Amino acid sequence: MKPPVFSSPLAGRMVSFIAFKRMQGHDYHDGELQLRRFDTFLGATGCTDGVLRMQDVDRYRATMAGRSIRTRCGALSPIRQFSLYLRAMEPRSEPVPVRLFPRQARPIRFHPLSTAQVSGLMSSVPGVLGNNIAAHGIRFLIGLLYSTGLRISEAVALNAGDVNFQHATLFVRRGKFRKERLVPMSPSTLQATREWIERRAPYVGGSDRDPLLVIAWNQRLTRRGAGRYFRRLCIHGGLTSKPPPRLHDLRHNYACRRIALWRQAQEDVDALLPVLANAMGHVDFFSTQVYLHIDAGGLQQASARFHTHVHHHPESSK
After folding, report:
1. Most buried of 162, 206, 261, 286 (most Cβ within 10 A)?
2. How far apart are CA 310 and CA 304, in angstroms?
3. Helical (H) or strand (E) element with 183
4. What's the CA gap between 93 and 49, in Å, rounded?
5. H helix or E strand, kind and range, residue 164
6. CA-CA distance, 162 to 185, in Å (whole number)?
7. For residue 149, which phi and psi values (nearest 5 degrees)?
8. Among 235, 24, 215, 13, residue whose Cα is nearest residue 120
9. Three-state secondary-structure class, residue 27
10. Catalytic positions, please?
């Protein structure tokens, strides 16, 4: 079904704002959805001019009173961004304040995946997704995310020219916060990239600006499409816990695996955190410290499993 068009007195401004966000490189699908809902509310509640007023925002907030803080903030965030855009062109409009809701600590959403599980997902691709270029692209993407820690948005935005085989690096030009960086590739990742470049050659024009990850002739793999493929693979592989694994969990697992390897090598993990932060594109290494807690949690879980195993093992009662 075709999505409804914008229809409130602010419709034209909203459409222009969404186009502006996409010109900046944002997908903005979720933001558009939230603005469509707000637009429908404005059209149904008597908003009669092209000015945004806080009384309208407050009435819209009241309709979400029974929802979680996180849900309400997610719905309001695009409206606030739009209000700042609108204020620049219409001084009578009121900007939405940045903190309408109390901050809520975000739980760490992390699904641990072993190397064997990741390998199993990649091996199952032909049987689940087929033998087409899209399936091969998903297989390469899974290995790339797990071995480099890239964000999914960064991976699908890569172009052929962003791969430097001589220095074994990927150039991320559209990272979070518009931060550019070089991401190193291991020898095995470099070889997998060579093989993927060769396989995708018939599906691109040969320019450095061609997308690295394609699903058809010069058609870039999207974040949402990759997520759908990954969910199918996880369901087929029996990875259906709550919450289920996401492509983003490959990035988390990369970080935890790197920290675990440093611990095994008796390296100074705290001293190496800035290195990991730079590789992952964090603004500061404080964001990277969360992986120390995840890693510690993983160690505690492993210890608990070992304790249970020993406690129930027949030999332990002798």
Report:
1. 162
2. 10
3. strand 181-184
4. 10
5. strand 163-164
6. 12
7. 75, 15
8. 235
9. coil
10. 151, 176, 248, 251, 282, 291
The span from the CA of 200 to the CA of 206, in Å, is: 10
Which residues fall within 8 angstroms of residue 105, CB to CB, at 6 or more apart? none
Residue appearing with tokens 């493929």: 229
User: What sign results for the dihedral spanned by CA atoms 178, 183, 189, 191?
Assistant: positive
Residue keyed to tokens 């440093």:
262
State the DSSP H helix or E strand holding residue 30, giving kind and residue range, or none if neither: helix 29-44
CA 154, CA 172: separation in Å to the nearest integer? Answer: 7
Nearest to 235 by CA among 118, 121, 114: 121
Tens-digit pLDDT profile for residues 24-67: 767 788 889 999 999 999 988 877 678 898 999 999 989 988 88
Longest dimension (CA), the chain: 82
List pLDDT tens digits, range 268-290: 877 787 788 778 887 655 566 66
Q: Which residue, chain included where needed, has tokens 């979680």? A: 68
212: Cβ contacts below 8 Å, ≥ 6 apart: 158, 159, 160, 162, 163, 200
